[in-house]
Amino acid sequence: MTEKALRLGTRRSKLAMAQSGQVAQAVRQVTGRPVELVEITTYGDVSREALAQIGGTGVFVTALRDALLRGEVDFAVHSLKDLPTTQPEELVLAAVPVREDPRDVIVARDALKFTDLPRGARVGTGSPRRMAQLNAYARTHGLDIETVPIRGNVDTRIGYVRDGELDAVVLAAAGLNRIGRIDEVTDFLSVDTVLPAPGQGALAIECAAGNADLVAALGALDDPFTRVAVTAERSLLAALEAGCSAPVGALADLLADGQTVKEMRLRGVVGTTDGTRMVQLSTTGPVPQTHDRATALGRELATEMLAQGAAGLMGERAH
Fold it and tell me: What percent of the chain has pLDDT over 90?
């Protein structure tokens, strides 16, 4: 008798379906069970409001989590950067697979690089974090850009450039990689220019805490290095009391000496969206061996950032 298919809850966007399809394939391999995708529409998918206005936090996640809690799906795949920093007790983050490229990228007209954009170039992004850092970089490097708030899926966003409405748009490298469109990128933004969103490029595989067998099976897809890195980044975000629509960037990267990973560096940034005021700090230490150590690292850096005035740069404190 064939085993019952595992039901994977996913958002309906092309990107969500692509990344969920990749996870489904991996889950089939580790469990030997069939996996079917269950498409779920979230509030963030249907609302036309700007993400910063609807709160950002959890708008793409709540409907998936509700389906998990009701037992309509067995597990769900999220973009980790969309997950609220508080984890519901009934659900567990069973796996954080190896992270994709965490960088932000530019898709610009005429194959332009960011630094080659003409004066007054209109650059589209829905992210206050990207706006803050691009405007700060432009200001310190004598560039003249205008950041324009946009929403929509990858096609919509790149369409603004193709139609000549915008000179460039900013997207995540990971998403374009997953849908096979990385060749449309005209410039990869160094993380020294724009720190990504906490958890960017990583996926979260979530299931009911009570389903011990599934938790154990999905655990085979977990990457311990990715997990400690994103745990530190998200801890920083939580300690700044900022939602995922706040202008906070964070990246934990592992510093290796040859093949041996020696240390982890955590960088954080927060700034006003016009880029005039920024607090950017980093800390380096041994690679955290536990969830608690990774969490403490993020909290410590956040405390230093708050001491330097980070709270005042985030506008409304997200609740």
Answer: 68
Residue 51 corresponds to which amino acid? L
d(CA 224, CA 96): 8
Distances (CA, A) of 54 to 51, 196, 234, 261: 5, 21, 20, 40
Scanning 2-61, the segments in alpha helix (DSSP H) are 14-31, 43-46
pLDDT digits (tens, 9 = 90+) for 38-51: 999 765 555 555 44
Where would I find the H helices in 141-223?
Answer: 154-162, 173-178, 212-218
Return the DSSP state at 276.
Answer: S
Rounded to two decimals, the pTM is: 0.88
CA-closest candidate to residue 44, choices 29, 35, 57: 57
162, amino acid identity: R
Q: Please report, in angstroms and rounded to a whole number, the separation of the first and last CA atoms in the chain.
A: 49
Tokens for 299, please give them. Answer: 């909290």
- Among this protein's residues, is 101 annotated catalytic? no
Closest by CA to 173, choosing from 76, 83, 249, 107, is 107
Dihedral (C-alpha) 107, 110, 112, 118: value to the nearest 10 degrees?
-110
Among 74, 82, 167, 187, which one carries the catalytic annotation? 82
